[in-house]
């Protein structure tokens, strides 16, 4: 029998699920829809990958692997909540929490000394970073703000910080020597295998890939980030931030670009603390300190030193901060800077948050200040500089009047940069990296490289491109809005893509549609102007821009990307329904643990479930499931109209209260429909009970707040403790038990 698979993930969404899923299960049971949970949390993935270190009762199935197979089947129907894409410091924290709970897991070997350690490291490296989404996303992405969400934002506008034309905030990006500048690309004619190798100047060779298969029609590109150009650029920016009196902030994606970006982050840490790293190089080496892991990890390793040595280094770090430009802060109360943890500042969320906040980030005093947003690689930096320039010229956007920008994103089958991890290498000695076509033995792409350069190759297969063009045309038809392909004719990879897009568009009837191709900068300017004028424009983009744009526009338009409908129509016919476009909101967990209030907004989950039930009904010829889905959509609209989203403040309705209201409206919609009398009967009673007990339930859901919560862990909290923390209303629980 087919099922809806619901993912168990991490942090705030995982907490929220403990409250929402019992409601979902109770309601869907009435339509014979089975919901099965699959554990893809960071802790779950670690446990599943190390059975040989664990006792039989600790071992669990590899749910991610199972879902990875399911997404290739037509019956797939998965609700995917956001999960942690772990940086190395997070991975180490999770391992240590699990070890403390009796799981005899090996430590993460930073510098593997033998084959066994190397094997352990490679198992962990598959878990680190963005290790879930690329496996599940066997389709392209369709992310948009439903009309009801947009209307809600127009009537209840979120705050938008005013912009001044004199703002000193700006984007700094490399002018040469970066991934964009060095990119080379080609389309593979016939299926083949390639070898990737570094031929060092000393005559030795290192093979990176022995025989990697490529399909006919695949686009490959290779490029390199030159270390010398990067470090020179970073030093200049540090000096310039100091001279201009703006904050220094670094924006990148060390989680998703899990091989390249931690290295780039490390160079920024070393550039800012150049004197410290030079003076204490030997000690840092002895302690196994890697700048790539950030300041927090560095500080924790200093604990191993005698007090006087530790104080000396800490003093030198303080001095460097004193001498350098002000650093943007992640948490000024706790002294956590932008350079503390590589996963604390993630560009898709950090840049829009800054743009919403008058272009300011927080300084060490906890005050907003103009900032230099350093985005080392220039491939996509233009979109943020164009947005900042637009705000300086026209002021902040007005959520009550602005248009909407949905996205059709190319991401299937690890498209583009997001699939580059196993083909990204930090170069150990000068030489030439060659990509050799094994059919012809010809070198098809090559780069001269220096030690420390980051070389990478990306792929995008032809079938996903065809599917992406088709999805773009169908969204353009459904909306009659202009659709813009954000592709740059001056970028090697995009040139190849443009050829395919132009060809595949010819295979569709596009009469009356307005479909354009523009560079990211032009597309930003065109789209922002329309957006300001209240006009809607579809962005059709590659994978990285998909990620950036589906946070940027939603955050400006509706305050958070949590309110997005995020569908992944799987290429083999199934459906993956993501819950919003944002992440796992660690800040929300912090608040919940401190004061028992969870502000996570599950709207994206309501929207995803609505589509999933509908899809289920259609696939399984189950009209009751469709009625549940329709009723859920009506409930979500009423939820928005009545403004029942979680408040940010303690002792007001939080995530749990918002779930109660959704259940109330869902039951009401089912009680008032006439298509299915059985459902009408069941939910008539449920609605009556829920509405009679509204006051009591809300009281129970608010009175439980106001004190610290112990859930028995962070990465693997105690299931019982979480469940009781997230389901504190016995009145609501007992009504759900009657369904
Ligand atoms: N699909 C996925 O699996 C994704 C996973 N991630 C992962 O999530 C983690 C955190 O990433 P980060 O970049 O900090 O981004 P997040 O999206 O988790 O958080 C950024 C901010 O967005 C707001 N926000 C996000 N979701 C919600 C929500 N449902 N309700 C209310 N507000 C929300 C919060 O703002 P405020 O503080 O103002 O409340 C939050 O602090 C990382 O491990 C990252 O890799 C990120 C994106 C997608
Ligand atoms: O997979 C990840 O790490 C993040 C995904 C993401 O941010 C997105 O798809 O918008
Ligand atoms: Mg994103």
UniProtKB/TrEMBL annotation:
Pfam families: IDH
Top-tier EC class: oxidoreductase
GO BP, sorted A to Z: glyoxylate cycle; tricarboxylic acid cycle
Amino acids binding D-threo-isocitrate: 143, 546
Binding residues annotated for substrate, in chain numbering: 130-137
Catalytic activity: D-threo-isocitrate + NADP(+) = 2-oxoglutarate + CO2 + NADPH
Claim: Signal is one of the keywords in the record: no
Residues annotated for NADP(+) binding in this entry: 80-85, 133, 583-584, 588, 599-601, 648
Site feature (Critical for catalysis) residues: 253, 418
Binding site for Mg(2+): 348, 547, 551
One Gene Ontology MF term: isocitrate dehydrogenase (NADP+) activity
Family (UniProt): Belongs to the monomeric-type IDH family.
NCBIfam families: monomer_idh
Descriptive protein name: Isocitrate dehydrogenase [NADP]
Native source species: Pseudozobellia thermophila
């Amino acid at each position: 029998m087919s099922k809806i698979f619901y993912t168990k993930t991490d942090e705030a969404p995982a907490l929220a699920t403990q409250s929402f899923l019992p409601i979902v299960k109770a309601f869907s049971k009435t339509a014979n829809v089975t919901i099965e949970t699959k554990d893809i949390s960071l802790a779950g993935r670690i446990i599943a990958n190390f059975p040989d270190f664990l006792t039989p009762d600790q071992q669990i199935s590899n749910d991610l692997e199972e879902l990875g197979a399911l997404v290739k089947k037509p019956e797939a129907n998965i609700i995917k909540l956001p999960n942690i894409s772990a940086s190395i410091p997070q991975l180490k924290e999770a391992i240590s929490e699990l070890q403390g709970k009796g799981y005899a897991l090996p430590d993460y070997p930073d510098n593997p000394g033998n084959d066994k350690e190397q094997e352990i490291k490679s198992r962990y490296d598959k878990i680190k970073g963005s290790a879930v989404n690329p496996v599940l996303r066997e389709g392209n992405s369709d992310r948009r703000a439903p009309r009801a969400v947009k209307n809600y934002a127009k009537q209840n506008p979120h705050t938008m910080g005013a912009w001044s034309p004199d703002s000193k905030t700006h984007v700094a990006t490399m002018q040469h020597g970066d991934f964009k500048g060095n990119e080379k690309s080609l389309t593979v004619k016939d299926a083949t295998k390639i070898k990737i190798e570094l031929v060092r100047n000393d005559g030795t060779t290192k093979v990176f890939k022995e025989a990697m298969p490529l399909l006919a029609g695949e686009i490959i590109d290779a490029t390199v980030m030159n270390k010398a150009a990067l470090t020179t650029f970073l030093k200049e920016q540090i000096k310039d931030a100091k001279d201009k009196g703006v904050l220094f902030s670094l924006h990148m994606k060390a989680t998703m670009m899990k091989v390249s970006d931690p290295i780039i982050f490390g160079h920024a840490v070393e550039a800012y603390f150049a004197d410290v790293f030079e003076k204490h190089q030997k000690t840092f080496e002895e302690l196994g300190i890697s700048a790539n892991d950030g300041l927090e990890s560095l500080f924790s390793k200093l604990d191993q030193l005698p007090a006087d040595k530790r104080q000396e280094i800490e003093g030198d770090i303080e001095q460097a901060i004193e001498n350098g430009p002000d650093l943007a802060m992640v948490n000024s109360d706790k002294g956590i800077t932008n350079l503390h943890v590589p996963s604390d500042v993630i560009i898709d969320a950090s840049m829009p948050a800054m743009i919403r906040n008058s272009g300011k980030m927080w300084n060490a005093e906890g005050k907003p200040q103009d900032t230099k947003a350093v985005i080392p690689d220039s491939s996509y930096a233009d979109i943020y500089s164009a947005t900042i320039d637009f705000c300086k010229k026209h002021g902040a956007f007005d959520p009550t009047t602005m248009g909407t920008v949905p996205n059709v994103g190319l991401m299937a089958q690890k498209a583009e940069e997001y699939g580059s991890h196993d083909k990204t290498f930090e170069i150990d000695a000068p030489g030439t990296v060659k990509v050799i076509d094994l059919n012809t033995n010809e070198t098809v792409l090559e780069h001269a490289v220096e030690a420390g350069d980051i070389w990478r190759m990306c792929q995008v297969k032809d079938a996903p491109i065809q599917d992406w063009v088709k999805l773009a045309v169908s969204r353009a038809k459904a909306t009659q809005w202009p659709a813009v392909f954000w592709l740059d004719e001056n970028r090697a990879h995009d040139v190849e893509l443009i050829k395919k897009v132009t060809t595949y568009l010819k295979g569709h009837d596009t009469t009356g549609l307005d479909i354009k191709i523009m560079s990211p900068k032009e597309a930003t300017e065109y789209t922002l102007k329309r957006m300001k004028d209240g006009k809607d424009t579809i962005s059709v983009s590659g994978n990285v821009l998909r990620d950036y744009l589906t946070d940027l526009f939603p955050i400006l338009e509706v305050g958070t990307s949590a309110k997005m409908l995020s569908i992944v129509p799987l290429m083999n016919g199934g459906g993956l329904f993501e819950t919003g476009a944002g992440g796992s909101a660690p800040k929300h967990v912090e608040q919940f643990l401190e004061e028992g209030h969870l502000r996570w907004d599950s709207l994206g989950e309501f929207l995803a479930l609505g589509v999933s039930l509908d899809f289920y009904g259609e696939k399984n010829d189950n009209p009751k499931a469709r009625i549940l889905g329709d009723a859920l959509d009506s409930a979500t609209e009423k939820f928005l109209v009545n403004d029942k989203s979680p408040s940010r403040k303690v002792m007001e309705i939080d995530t749990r209260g918002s779930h109660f209201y959704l259940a109330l409206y869902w039951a009401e919609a089912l009680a008032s429909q006439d298509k299915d009398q059985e459902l009408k009967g069941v939910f008539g009673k449920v609605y009556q009970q829920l509405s009679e007990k509204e006051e009591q339930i809300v009281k129970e859901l608010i009175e439980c707040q106001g004190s610290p919560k112990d859930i028995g862990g962070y990465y693997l909290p105690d299931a019982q403790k979480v469940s009781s923390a997230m389901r504190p209303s016995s009145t609501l629980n007992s009504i759900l038990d009657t369904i």
